[in-house]
Amino acid sequence: MIAFACPDGSEARGYLSESAGARAGVVVIQEWWGLNQQIEGVVEHFAVAGFTALAPDLYGGRVTTEPDEADHLMTGLDWTGATEVEVRGALQYLKARLERVAVMGFCMGGALSVIAAARLDDCDAAVCYYGIPPREQVEPVEIRVPFQGHFAARDDWCIPDAVDAFEAAIGPTGVPQEIHRYEAAHGFFNETVPAYDSYSAAKSWQRTLAFLRQHM
What structural domains does the chain harbor? Predict the structure, then answer.
């Protein structure tokens, strides 16, 4: 865990894993559970793959395994504010050390990665796993960096109809876009939950690394 400065003058904490010789980095945004060991594991996997990665702690140290508490924490978070402060601060921390930095996230973090792709000048690419922000927070057509999305066909939160509408609304942004769908349920990448699907997780990770290496 490290501390880093945020653009509003505050200080945030996050989990950092550095990759020797890395020229690019990734800000990893947590699911609604908080900055737990599973997200720390994603950060470590990025470092093994050659990217320095940092996961900002958006809940101030709180972590849960209870859906009701997770929902309370997620709904109590200002998504746009967290993107503008903690996520931007993490981006700036990595950008001071690396040439290019992407943002990627899961569930709630996936929605925040969409906001970052549209709002943050320091963001060079974005990867979203099964999360879409409300249209009043950001319009999909505002995405201005290479974007990749991973969505589940049996998702009961980020439902397929919402994904179809999101893809249609992205429109001709002039930047590379990829939308991938998997025959899986919400949370298929998270090996600690019942929805985990090893094939979809492995395939999406392969696509994520290929996308980031191409655009970063």
Answer: 2-215 (3.40.50.1820)
